[in-house]
UniProtKB/TrEMBL annotation:
Family matches, as InterPro entries: Cellulose_synthase_operon_BcsQ (IPR017746), DNA_Partitioning_ATPase (IPR050678), P-loop_NTPase (IPR027417)
Phylogenetic lineage: Bacteria, Pseudomonadati, Pseudomonadota, Gammaproteobacteria, Enterobacterales
Highest taxon of source: Bacteria
Pfam families: CBP_BcsQ
Organism this protein belongs to: Chania multitudinisentens RB-25
Protein name: Chromosome partitioning protein ParA
Length: 267
């Protein structure tokens, strides 16, 4: 069941990359994982080999459907994707209105998948403060805030810590964690900012991901970083983060055994 929300006050920091590669890593370790795209850019699906011409998704009809699972696509062993899909401007406004004003909107749409034992749901959020993030506040069990190893992200840490970006998860289950992305140890500033984050966030920091050319390459080829470049720093970093997430979520993973689930409801 656990629902993990990947978000950030900033755009372009790697939310979608972290969502996709965390999902690949957890699925590879044997967990059943569903990624859900709440960003109408509809980019998450492109990390899973879904053709760019395939614009299906849940957002356009999310208000009239009581269950969004009919739009779930299988992306690999244990791995499922619920794309946002293409939306017109009117559909986007209605989607955001539902997110803002329908108290059980997300719980209802995901109710079937949230009931599947052991299923990990990872939600990719649009950047900044937005309707999806507000709606997710009381629903998410765990929040992962992605920041860059730069001074702009550093300046955003105090308002995040003071919960001006997002309130504490209402269900108070697993709380808020951080990932610092695009750390470059060859640059003094990036190194200093990374060290500052490490000291300040301590156990709340799931890990740091190195800036690595294999990341955009993996994105471009719609595959996992660990498949494109298994011995890269970024692949190692993702693996490390996924193991920490598995421990926090209480998942029994680590043997790399696939269950080869063909249906989202299968065991
Ligand atoms: N560790 C990394 N090293 C190198 N490039 C990276 C790394 N992480 C992400 N990128 C690149 O940064 C860009 C932005 O990543 P991504 O789309 O995941 O960010 P985002 O936070 O989801 O953006 P948006 O706010 O638009 O949703 C992509 O081109 C991605 O390939
Ligand atoms: Mg994104």
């Amino acid at each position: 069941m656990p629902l993990v929300c990947v978000c950030s006050p900033k755009g372009g920091v790697g939310k979608t990359t972290v969502t996709a590669n965390l999902a690949y890593a957890l699925a590879r370790s044997g967990s059943k994982v569903l990624v859900v795209d709440f960003d109408t850019q509809n980019a998450l699906r492109l990390h899973f080999g879904i053709p760019i011409s395939d614009n299906r998704g849940f957002a356009a009809q999310s208000g009239t459907l009581s269950d969004w699972s009919q739009f779930i696509l299988k992306a690999g062993p244990n791995l499922f994707v619920l794309p946002c899909g293409e939306v017109t401007e009117d559909e986007r406004l209605l989607f955001e209105d539902n997110l803002m004003n329908e108290p059980m909107f997300i719980q209802r749409g995901l109710s079937a998948v949230l009931k599947i034992p052991g299923m990990v749901v990872i939600a990719d959020m649009p950047p900044g403060r937005n309707a999806a993030l507000k709606a997710m506040q009381g629903v998410a069990d765990m929040r992962i805030v992605v920041l860059l190893a730069d001074t702009a992200s550093l300046s955003l840490l105090p308002p995040i810590e003071q919960h001006k970006f997002m309130n504490e998860p209402l269900n108070h289950k697993m709380g808020e964690y951080y990932v610092v992305n695009q750390s470059d140890m060859r640059r003094t500033l990036s190194r200093d900012v990374t060290h500052f984050f490490e000291q300040r966030l301590q156990g709340k920091l799931l890990g740091t991901i190195h800036r690595d050319e294999c990341v955009p390459e993996a994105n471009a080829s719609q595959r996992a970083i660990m498949d494109i470049s298994p011995v890269s720093a970024a692949a190692f970093d993702i693996e490390h983060i996924s193991k920490k997430v598995a421990v926090i979520l209480g998942l029994s993973v680590g043997d790399g055994a696939y269950h080869h689930t063909t249906s989202i409801y299968g065991s």
